[in-house]
Design goal:
GO terms for molecular function: oxidoreductase activity, acting on the CH-OH group of donors, NAD or NADP as acceptor; zinc ion binding. This is Enoyl reductase (ER) domain-containing protein. The chain has ten helices and 17 strands. It has about 375 residues and is an alpha/beta fold. The chain folds into two domains: about 220 residues, Quinone Oxidoreductase, Chain A, domain 1, CATH 3.90.180; about 140 residues, NAD(P)-binding Rossmann-like Domain (Rossmann fold). The strands form four sheets. Strands 3, 4, 5, 8, 9, 16 and 17 form a seven-stranded mixed β-sheet that branches. It has a six-stranded parallel β-sheet with strand order 12-11-10-13-14-15. Helix 7 links the parallel strand 13 and strand 14. About 45% of the residues are buried. One zinc ion (ZN) binds next to loops.
Length: about 375
Amino acid sequence: MKSCVGYAAFESSGKLSTYNFDRREPQDDDVMLEILYSGVCHSDVHWVRAEWNPSPPYPLVPGHEIVGRVAEVGAKVTKIAVGDIAAVGVQVDSCGECKCCSDQRDDPQYCTKGVFTYASPHGYPDSVESEKVTQGGYSTRIVTREKFVFSVPPALHKNLAGVAPLLCAGITTWAPLQYFAGGEAELRGKKLGVVGLGGLGHMAVKLGKALGCHVTVLSSSESKRKAAIDELGADAYLVHKDKEAMKDAQCSLDVVVDTVSADHDLEALVALLDVGGKYLVVGLPPHKLAFKNSWFVNKKRMLGGTLIGGPVMTQDLLNFCAERGVYADIELIKMDAINDAFERMLASDVKYRFVIDIASSKLE
Ligand SMILES: [Zn+2]
Ligand SMILES: [Zn+2]
């Protein structure tokens, strides 16, 4: 076993504190990373506070935006070597045999036996893995199957903290643009709307711009207008509640990516789509959102959703970001600031993602 120090929640207050545990000894197809940076995702708060699962498996170490240095590889590992900078995202394993897991499909995140990076039963016997469930990246090291470990291209090494959020916020907003909107070949010059400007939304804006789209941010308030346009490079900014402006913008967008995980009214947002437009959701609001078929039928619009992206697509995203110089905008924190960071994130008081500097947090 490999000793590891993490920050875990022990009950549903979700307050994190030090937790010592073991990672499995790397198996033949495993890679062990010494973690350098770990991004802080909204999912982490939902999990530790028992908001998504009423009885999460405690102790629970969250974190699924992980960048680290490879310290050990198993005998059958071929694409990753000791000393490489590599990354792990939201998923760490799957059955490997079903339709979703085939390389052509590259959809293991939809495998019914998918194993996620934390709070997921891992399928290893106690003799191999002493933790009952997977434990995430708010920790000093992680052992993961090679299939779910990604190479971080050298061009990204100058800002590894800004790479970590690509592993969840980045791939989550990249995937719908690839699956449903044709990727760069079809998106260049198209009009993209991004609903919400948190961790996910800011990545959607940056990736949309890098893909050559005209990007409009759709926000619930005026407060982020200047940052959206001056700092993130958005071309336009609309406030949902500004009925006049929303009406003027009807039928003007080709694709909308909706990143909001709170309940919200879709009618005025769907109405922004042109004939044939696509409304793509990646947020997970707690309740059903109502829509009328006529919003879609009468304008040949479609509604789609995606959950992260497969391993092949995730590596493609990292390669794209290396080529175009795309990073997340982050605020770097030490591990012991995480409980305050959760509160600030819930208050949208971060531009746009917290990333934990694991290596200099002196967890050992
Ligand atoms: Zn996430
Ligand atoms: Zn499978």
